[in-house]
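hiii so um. not sure if this is the right channel but i have a protein structure encoded as tokens and i wanna go backwards to a sequence. like what aa goes where. can anyone help
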């Protein structure tokens, strides 16, 4: 009789389920690995520092566990993307003074260990390699890694958008805005189809979803406009790529409600 293994916590299950949907064809790099490489691009870190940065700065990975983090680091190390070295930042400890008192020497030894961290397991420092930078650039530029999690994929790539060239940043923003326009049209169509069948609460929920999408589109409009102004690309593509009042006018024209 087969038994389902429930030994892993919900966080690991969520991360693995998400990661399996975010594999690119033929290679299978994970969004967790993209996040790790992006953080290491800035500086070398211990594993616990990486986890803290993931939790504090990348909301979609805020619940990642060490049970997911260290296997990902091991995969990256095996692929040559990261290099792990022992932490040698501690200075050599001073010798314990011989006081002639056993209790005094024990107290000095305890104080030295407390101050230097001796007696603890040595910690690894992870740093990105040239191969890791190549993999990071490949993941960051990939537009096939989103699967069904476009929002998470977009948010993570936007967090590291400073490493993208201007035209790639603009493409990332415009692609996400196009997805939101489609979602907005579908939400409005659903609201029209359900008109007269919804109570106050269900209707309010649908309105809230629509308003949230509209706010996200407006936010992307501002980012796109700022990106073009910064890079001198005001003569970009026409049609859906227009920003500001033209976008909102187009959105209103598409709304027949």
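sure thing!! here u go:
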């Amino acid at each position: 009789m087969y038994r389902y293994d429930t030994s892993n916590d919900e966080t690991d299950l969520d991360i693995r389920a998400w990661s399996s949907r975010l594999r690119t064809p033929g290679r299978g790099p994970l969004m967790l690995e993209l996040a790790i490489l992006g953080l290491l691009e800035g500086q070398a870190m211990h594993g616990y520092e990486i986890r803290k940065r993931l939790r504090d700065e990348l909301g979609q990975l805020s619940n990642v566990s060490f049970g997911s983090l260290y296997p990902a680091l091991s995969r990256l190390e095996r692929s040559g993307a990261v290099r792990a070295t022992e932490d040698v930042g501690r200075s050599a400890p001073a010798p314990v003074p011989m006081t002639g008192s056993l209790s005094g020497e024990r107290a000095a030894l305890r104080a030295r260990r407390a101050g230097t961290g001796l007696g603890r397991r040595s910690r690894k420092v992870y740093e990105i390699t040239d191969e890791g930078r190549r993999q990071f650039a490949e993941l960051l530029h990939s537009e096939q890694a989103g699967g069904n999690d476009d929002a998470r994929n977009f948010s993570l790539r936007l967090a590291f958008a400073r490493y993208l060239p201007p035209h790639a940043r603009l493409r990332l923003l415009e692609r996400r805005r196009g997805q939101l326009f489609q979602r907005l049209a579908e939400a409005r169509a659903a609201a029209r189809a359900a008109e007269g069948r919804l109570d106050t609460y269900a209707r309010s929920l649908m309105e809230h979803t629509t308003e949230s999408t509209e706010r996200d589109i407006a936010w992307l409009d501002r980012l796109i406009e700022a990106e073009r102004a910064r890079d001198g690309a005001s003569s970009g593509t026409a049609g859906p790529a227009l920003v500001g009042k033209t976008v909102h006018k187009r959105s209103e024209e598409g709304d027949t409600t």
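oh and The radius of gyration is 25 Å.
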